[in-house]
Amino acid sequence: MTGRTLSVLATCLIPTALTLAVIHSTGSAGDLGLVLACELIPQLVLLPIGGVLADRQPPQRVAFAADLVRGLVQLAIGIELLAGTVNILHLSVLSVITGAAVAIGTPTVSPLVTAVVPPEARLRANSHLGTARGIALVAGPGIVGVMVVTIGVGWSFVLTAALFLVAATTLGGLKVTRHERPAGHSTFLKDLAEGWQVVRSHRWFWTNLVGHGISNLTAGVLMTLGPLIAVRELGGDTSWVITYQCGMVGMLLGAYLAPRLSIPRPLVATSLGGAVFALPLLTFAVPAPTAVNAAAYFVAMLGLGILNTVWQTVMQQQFEPHTLARADSYDALLSFAARPLGLALAAPVAATTGNAAVLVVAAVLVGAGSLGLLALREVRTMGFVTHEETVPEAVTAAETADDH
């Protein structure tokens, strides 16, 4: 758990560190966009491949390789910055490698949980990981800022590299339960195709992926228009800072509470958790006072914290261990793709239609997309799998319920 926490923290440091590195080096918005795109695009392209690798190989080995590569790349960037010989082409190439390593490492998290944590303890383990990720998201930019001010941007990359390398070394001591793959010959391409078939074969899963994609798209809309409205109409930067921090507290609290709540129907809980994100979209559309926006965003992120924790646990229970990483890779792919799309589209569309129209449409989309999932019988009836049950029995029960 400590190693994965360090890896998550280091991953959250990278975007801010890269941004400051480019600003300190050239100050060009074009260069910054290029470097950040070079990190994102490999993630979108290679996530399904990362899922195949994590299903074909012991996940701790794949995670070790991903952390090691990221650590070495951050070290190389740090050395170049300390030497004063920064080259945007070099940063772009190293960012591509970083993005590829993120894509390879991301799908290993759920397989590691199922290989290390007994079934009855996975909801709590996912809560710990979700809380750690939330803290990293909140603290990451501030940590980078402090490091840049105190020791310089180059040394901040060196310390980030050290976090990755320490995270990699913790994997060596894991006692992993080995999940046997089905007998028979399989190639990498067959496994890649099988991953897509697995996603398509579970209606409850791919429909939720669509819902989560809509949620991430609308989150990108709010992250673009929310700060603009706060600064222009609600009193300045302080308004957005208060609102954002209240949301982060809500997300942490949601991840903490998830294993402590009585949740008999987990997919109903995740649907409701996604739907409440409509609240801050509507309050900013008015726009409401800062206190109302902050309360709405707190509730929305509380729902998201519960959603993420419960959803990861459901996936780990409902998918066979040898297909879990591939399923998880598609979940991550939609998240990685949809939010930047929302960030990119929000401002240009709002310039034509107005902020309120975009925010109201986004609220309707996320509300309808999340609550619409409740129309599926398997979403309404699926429960957590008890540790006495097997995954195939649980899946069969859900599918049988849907047929009646």
TrEMBL record:
| First-listed, main subcellular location of the protein, grouped into a coarse class | membrane
One example of the protein's molecular function in GO is: transmembrane transporter activity
Q: Where in the cell is it found?
A: Cell membrane
Q: How does it sit in the membrane?
A: Multi-pass membrane protein
Give the SUPFAM superfamilies listed for this entry.
Answer: MFS general substrate transporter (SSF103473)
Give the record's keywords alphabetically: Cell membrane, Membrane, Transmembrane, Transmembrane helix
Q: Which residues cross the membrane?
A: 31-50, 62-82, 88-117, 129-149, 155-174, 209-230, 242-259, 266-288, 294-311, 332-350, 356-376
Q: Which residues form the Major facilitator superfamily (MFS) profile domain?
A: 1-380
Pfam families xrefs: MFS_1
Q: Name one GO cellular component term.
A: plasma membrane
- Name of the protein in question: MFS transporter
Q: To which species is this protein native?
A: Streptomyces corchorusii
